[in-house]
Design brief:
alpha/beta, Ribosomal Protein S5, domain 2, 5-stranded mixed sheet, 3 helices, globular
């Protein structure tokens, strides 16, 4: 049986496109069911007032994964899994984006939670290094 959602377990969600785009340059870890991207908020000013001590989360579920019913089901499953693991595994002052893949709607919920825990541990254990930009090839 799951605990009722209280203010302590309620997730703070990302709402603006600019917040999602800022995280694109951060650390990432992927599994079969989703990709987790994260970035610290230090030095970033938001147009909306935010509590610097909270972790914030964003969910991305594209139309390629099905109709509205399927996408909303995936979103609800990911949100429920995040509520279970956010307190012990999410670091304060970080923003996270979870990008769903097709297996997120059909895989076992316990496996989804375990994969999220692994992704959060891996993304915070790796040293931050900048992504390499793709080079344009020269044609001869």
């Amino acid at each position: 049986m799951t605990a009722p959602v209280t203010a302590a377990t309620k997730l703070v969600m990302l709402k603006r496109r600019s917040e999602f785009l800022r995280i694109r340059n951060g650390l990432r870890w992927s599994t079969a069911a989703f990709v987790v991207e994260t970035k610290a908020r230090a030095g970033w000013t938001s147009p909306m007032p935010i509590d610097a001590g909270l972790a914030r989360f964003g969910l991305t579920v594209t139309k390629q994964l099905g109709g509205a019913v399927d996408r909303n089901r995936i979103r609800r499953r990911l949100r429920a899994a995040l509520q279970q693991i956010a307190a012990p595994h999410a670091k304060p002052g970080f923003d996270y984006v979870v990008i769903a893949r097709a297996p997120a709607g059909t895989c076992d919920f316990d496996q989804l939670v375990a994969d999220l825990v692994t992704a959060f541990e891996r993304v915070h254990s790796r040293p931050a290094k900048p992504r390499q930009e793709k080079r344009a090839t020269k044609s001869k």
